[in-house]
Design goal:
Blueprint (H helix, E strand, L loop, with lengths): L2 E7 L7 H12 L4 E5 L18 H10 L4 E6 L8 H10 L13 E6 L7 H13 L11 E2 L16 H29 L1
Parallel strand pairs: 1-2, 1-3, 3-4, 4-5
Bound molecules: ligand FNR.
Ligand FNR binds next to α1.
């Protein structure tokens, strides 16, 4: 069966390479994944005072993520770390305590940048969050997409670069397999 995937993109920029990577991955891997890019740019700064009576956008965000089979992060790095609003979305989903939408949710990470380290810094910070949030994180293939530029895409925003495209397809395929494995393992533990 196709898995329903929430994609969280760590850039609000109109021509974001990460958004284009996310859209391309969704298009290339339709056979295995049913991807939905969840809007996180409109979330308010997380404020614990609002926990008892959260803003509607926060409730909507948590409700969107909760039923998903997995979460895919596609993000640039800002100053060697995770863009602030993406961290804010992760914090928002993690609360109230004991009701985290991330708990036990399979995850995968793709980072992309025009530079040569492909968002390695943000990628590894995100990995650490996933450990704490109890998200079974796909280990391989790692996806530090380096030297991604406008030339990597066609006019419709679809990835045309061969090796990059191959890696993105591999990531989607492996993630579907990873979710299968987690679901099957959980069933075994329950019986
Ligand atoms: C960057 N950029 C960047 N690149 C990188 O490889 N390592 C970094 O630490 C940073 N830091 C950083 C901070 C801030 C505030 C900005 C705006 C940019 C460059 C970044 O990779 C580039 O702008 C990408 O194009 C951003 O991704 P999107 O928006 O195209 O998806």
């Amino acid at each position: 069966p196709r898995h329903r995937i929430a994609i969280l993109v760590g850039s609000l920029r109109r021509d974001s390479i990460n958004r284009r990577i996310a859209n391309s991955l969704a298009a290339f891997t339709q056979e295995w994944l049913d991807c939905e890019i969840i809007d996180i740019g409109g979330l308010p700064h997380y404020n614990q005072d609002e926990e008892a009576d959260p803003p509607p956008s926060v409730v909507r965000f948590r409700d969107q993520v909760r039923p998903m089979d997995g979460v895919l992060f596609v993000t640039p790095e800002y100053n060697r770390g995770v863009p602030g609003f993406l961290k804010n979305a992760i914090d928002t989903g993690s609360r109230p305590y004991g009701q985290s939408v991330w708990d036990k949710k399979p995850a995968a990470i793709v980072t992309a940048a025009p530079g040569s380290i492909g968002g390695f810094g943000a990628n590894h910070h995100l990995r650490q969050y996933c450990v704490f949030l109890n998200m079974p994180l796909m280990q391989q293939p790692e996806a530090y997409l380096a030297r991604v530029t406008d030339e990597s895409f066609d006019a419709e925003g679809c990835l045309v670069d061969g090796p990059l495209k191959d890696l993105v397809v591999q990531v989607g395929h492996a993630f579907a397999g990873w979710i299968d494995l987690i679901v099957r393992g959980r069933k075994l533990l329950e019986t």
